[in-house]
User: Which sequence fits this backbone?
């Protein structure tokens, strides 16, 4: 086969979107004789799509030089933009900015009115977004959209419109943002944009849906991305991200083994892409799943791997520490994370865990403030999952404040929302709190039914720590409050009478030692007692425990 025949076959592979074959053939042809600028563009695109990002940068840079030498500064500017595009994927911001500046200089020098000016607005828009200026980002994205429409460039229009949509979401304009996301996806799913842009827009839109807790849209577009990726022979880029998105949805829906399988397969795909930062998301998701299953050593290893890839570890690592009984460590971690996070969407990811941890360390005031903030965010975003989280947090705080009836109402709302979302784990967590609220109200039978239902759900999921907690709660059968004691205080009194230390009681009830000490102080005050021995005697005399206990 002649070199020209080999090159023609490489072009055919590219046209048929057989990316691995196209990359191998173009790279081989390039070794025999330097490729033309057009073929270097093809090599750069194929290299990107098979995960060879440094090779893609090199090919785009060579195409840039070829266009300059042939006297085509506009095409050279476009190649420079794509160099910057890939460098941003590699998190090399300084080098990307340099290439954008070079492209801008070329266009300004010739006063070119061209679509490439629209492409060069995209990095500027991203800089506005990164600096916390979504309005500035929106203005740049809209300028880029107008240029794309004027020149009839569907790739630029798709990239710019999804940027507009995300900026609107960051500004809290959720209906407008989601409507624009749906419009963008029409162009993507009908094949109007190039493969290079298709995968990028898919991933951005799915991330946006996850940010606003729109699980249904995230599921719809993740399924579509999966189909698209599987239809591209040899495609490697985007396969790992697709599996991580899928794992997130599977986790919420309670399919934890399938979710673990997805993240492990994602890691295998990421291993084929040098230095892909998205690898950290796969390890973080794996850490979450191991934590929920009680596999704490494996969870810690996964979180540490995520950290090595630059992934923030909150709230996952803080929740792991809470599950390990390291309440002070968990509290310090989650407090720092919340204090240094200003973005509303990012805070909403942290606040549910913050409430749980603050309640565990008996910082009721902080938990109340966080629950109120979460409710405000849920109201603004109007996302079912956030409404469920906010109702759960409100119920948990009210329960600790001793307002059982109001807590029960909030928790019932949360339970209904979790059912609608099809989130069995979170639903079971809420049912545990419903049981505790019923105990506070003296309804032990309903409490037992709720605990039994929660235990069954946790067992089905493989949530070992939660099964243990429910079993510990089920071992006690508090009667109606005695002498003004709450149901939780009766539980604590029973365990004191069994001779358990404050630490052992804290472990049994999944609360902090500080909280146990507060409950014991309240018990002594309400019953006019002065020692644990006296409290033990009282418990036996009043049937809170029996000699056979």
Assistant:
């Amino acid at each position: 086969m002649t070199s020209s025949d080999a090159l023609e076959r490489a072009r055919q592979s590219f046209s048929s979107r057989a990316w691995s074959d196209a990359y191998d053939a173009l790279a081989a042809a390039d070794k025999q004789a330097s490729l033309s600028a057009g073929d270097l563009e093809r090599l750069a695109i194929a290299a990107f799509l098979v995960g060879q990002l440094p090779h893609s940068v090199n090919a785009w840079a060579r195409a840039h030089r070829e266009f300059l030498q042939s006297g085509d500064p506009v095409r050279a500017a476009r190649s420079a933009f794509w160099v910057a595009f890939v460098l941003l994927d590699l998190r090399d911001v300084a080098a990307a900015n340099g290439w954008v500046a070079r492209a801008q200089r070329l266009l300004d020098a010739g006063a070119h009115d061209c679509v490439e000016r629209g492409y060069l607005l995209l990095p500027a828009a991203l800089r506005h977004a990164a600096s916390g200026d979504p309005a500035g980002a929106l203005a740049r994205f809209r300028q880029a959209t107008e240029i794309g429409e004027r020149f009839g460039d569907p790739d630029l229009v798709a990239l710019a419109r999804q940027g507009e949509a995300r900026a609107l979401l960051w500004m809290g304009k959720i209906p407008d943002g989601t409507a624009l996301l749906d419009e963008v996806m029409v162009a993507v799913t009908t094949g109007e944009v190039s493969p290079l842009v298709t995968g990028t827009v898919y991933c951005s839109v799915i991330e946006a849906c996850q940010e606003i807790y729109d699980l249904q849209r995230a599921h719809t577009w993740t399924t579509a991305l999966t189909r698209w990726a599987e239809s591209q022979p040899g495609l490697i880029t985007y396969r790992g991200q697709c599996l991580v998105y899928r794992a997130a949805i599977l986790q919420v829906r309670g399919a934890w083994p399938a979710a673990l399988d997805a993240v492990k397969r994602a890691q295998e795909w990421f291993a084929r892409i040098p230095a892909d930062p998205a690898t950290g998301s796969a390890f973080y998701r794996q850490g979450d799943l191991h934590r929920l299953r009680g596999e704490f050593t494996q969870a810690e290893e996964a979180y540490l791997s995520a950290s090595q890839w630059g992934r923030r570890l909150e709230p996952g690592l803080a929740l792991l520490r809470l599950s390990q009984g390291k309440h002070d460590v968990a509290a310090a971690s989650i407090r720092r994370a919340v204090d240094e996070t200003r973005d509303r969407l990012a805070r909403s990811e942290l606040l549910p865990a913050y409430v749980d941890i603050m309640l565990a360390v008996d910082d009721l005031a902080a938990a109340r403030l966080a629950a109120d903030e979460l409710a405000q965010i849920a109201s603004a975003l109007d996302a079912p999952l956030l409404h469920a989280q906010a109702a759960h947090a409100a119920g948990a705080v009210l329960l600790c404040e001793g307002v059982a009836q109001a807590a029960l109402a909030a928790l019932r709302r949360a339970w209904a929302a979790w059912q609608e979302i099809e989130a069995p784990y979170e639903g079971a967590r809420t049912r545990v709190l419903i049981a505790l609220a019923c105990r506070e109200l003296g309804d032990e039978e309903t409490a037992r039914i709720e605990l039994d239902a929660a235990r069954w759900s946790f067992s089905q999921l493989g949530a070992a720590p939660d099964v243990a907690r429910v079993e510990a709660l089920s071992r006690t059968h508090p009667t109606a409050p005695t002498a003004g004691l709450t149901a939780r205080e009766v539980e604590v009194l029973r365990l004191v009478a069994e001779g358990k230390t404050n630490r052992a009681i804290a472990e049994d009830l999944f609360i902090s030692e500080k909280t146990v000490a507060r409950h014991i102080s309240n018990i002594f005050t309400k019953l006019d007692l002065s020692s644990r021995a006296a409290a033990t005697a009282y418990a036996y005399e009043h049937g809170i425990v029996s000699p056979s206990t």
About this structure: Residues 127 and 295 are 40 Å apart (CA to CA). DSSP finds 29 helices and no strands in the chain. The radius of gyration is 29 Å.
